[in-house]
């Protein structure tokens, strides 16, 4: 129960009041897991016609993290279906790819999964009027008539708490050509064979989506394979979102996608990447520097 620690807290104006962004970036750079806690009033955030002013506490898992320029943290929800509190899912099946930056700025991309054809134009869309939600500040709206709308915004939560579980150990780092930079593949393989969980940091994986700062996406894996004679470790990741690198990280028209990676200690990274507008998959490959963590 004591494994999670708050390393950064922001108030409702997103001003740091405890911890520090540096502590958050240091922990994420060590592979730490991330959860973000917020709070809001039901009739300000969920149902503005309700008389219920009850405070609602929310803590959400951001299973995939991104470290930009060794100093800026963003986290993604990658497994979330939209919910309509207090007792239902949202009206359309879709992924809710919420993105939170360390400064409290937020974003969402929502690829719909119900097969309803949406072939509207891509690009800027009108920003809806949120007069009934004065705490909601939407900056933009992208691709509103397509299968994959997105937006960047801030909701003035009562607070923002960045929790980390900092229990991962980096045991191996490999260059894009497979050269071992630190640790060893043998140490990774030994921990894996003993049942350890594996997380991988993939450098530069969003660079083909747009130019930006140095970045690393850290994502848990779900299955691993070790070829004992070749001393080659291979892992399949959990789903991730790729976004063109920027500080702060933001969604835009065509600057993001989603999918899975197959990563290898020789630096080869294979993708099964979904175009969120068409739900058509492609299979790109990259050469990436990788960091391997065990728990």
Describe the structure.
The chain is built from three helices and 24 strands. The model has no long low-confidence stretch (mean pLDDT 97). A hairpin with a 3-residue loop joins strand 7 (83-84) and strand 8 (88-89). The chain is mostly beta strands and 295 residues long. It is globular and about 65 Å long.
The ordered H/E elements are: EEHEHEEEEEEEEEEEEHEEEEEEEEE
| Spatial gap, N to C terminus | 17 Å
Mean pLDDT: 97
What form results from the Cα inertia axes?
Answer: globular
List the helices and strands and how they pair.
Layout: E1 5-11, E2 16-19, H1 21-29, E3 33-41, H2 42-45, E4 55-62, E5 64-68, E6 72-76, E7 83-84, E8 88-89, E9 97-101, E10 106-109, E11 136-138, E12 150-155, E13 159-165, E14 169-174, E15 180-183, H3 185-193, E16 198-203, E17 215-227, E18 232-237, E19 240-243, E20 256-264, E21 268-275, E22 280-282, E23 285-287, E24 290-294
Antiparallel strand pairs: 1-2, 1-13, 3-4, 3-13, 5-6, 5-17, 6-9, 7-8, 9-10, 10-12, 11-12, 14-15, 14-24, 16-17, 16-24, 17-18, 18-20, 19-20, 20-21, 21-22, 21-23
Brief rundown of the structure:
The protein is mostly beta strands.
Annotation keywords:
single chain; 295 residues; mainly beta; 2 domains; 17-stranded antiparallel β-sheet; five-stranded antiparallel β-sheet; 3 helices; globular
């Amino acid at each position: 129960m004591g494994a999670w620690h708050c390393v950064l807290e922001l108030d409702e104006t997103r001003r740091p009041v405890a911890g520090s962004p540096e502590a958050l970036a240091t922990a994420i750079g060590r592979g730490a897991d991330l959860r973000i806690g917020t709070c809001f009033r039901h009739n300000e955030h969920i149902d503005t016609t309700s008389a219920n002013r009850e405070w609602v506490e929310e803590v959400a898992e951001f299973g995939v993290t991104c470290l930009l320029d060794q100093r800026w943290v963003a986290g993604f929800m990658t497994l979330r279906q939209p919910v309509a509190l207090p007792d239902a899912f949202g009206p359309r099946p879709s992924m809710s790819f919420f993105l939170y930056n360390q400064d409290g700025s937020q974003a969402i991309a929502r690829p719909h999964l119900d097969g309803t054809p949406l072939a509207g134009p891509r690009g800027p869309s009108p920003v809806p009027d949120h007069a009934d939600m004065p705490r909601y500040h939407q900056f933009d709206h992208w691709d509103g008539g397509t299968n994959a709308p997105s937006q960047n915004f801030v909701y003035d939560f009562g607070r923002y708490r960045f929790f980390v579980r900092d229990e991962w150990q980096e045991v191996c780092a490999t260059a894009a050509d497979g050269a071992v930079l630190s640790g060893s593949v043998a140490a990774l393989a030994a921990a894996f064979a003993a049942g350890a969980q594996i997380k991988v940091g993939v450098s530069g994986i969003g660079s083909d989506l747009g130019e930006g700062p140095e970045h690393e996406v850290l994502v848990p894996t779900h299955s691993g394979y070790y070829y004992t004679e070749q001393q080659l470790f291979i892992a399949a990741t959990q789903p991730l979102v790729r976004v063109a690198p920027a500080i702060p990280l933001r969604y835009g028209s065509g600057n993001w996608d989603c999918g899975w990676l197959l990563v290898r200690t020789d630096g080869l990274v294979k993708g099964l990447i979904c175009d969120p507008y068409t739900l058509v998959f492609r299979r790109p490959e990259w050469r990436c520097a990788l960091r391997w963590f065990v728990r």
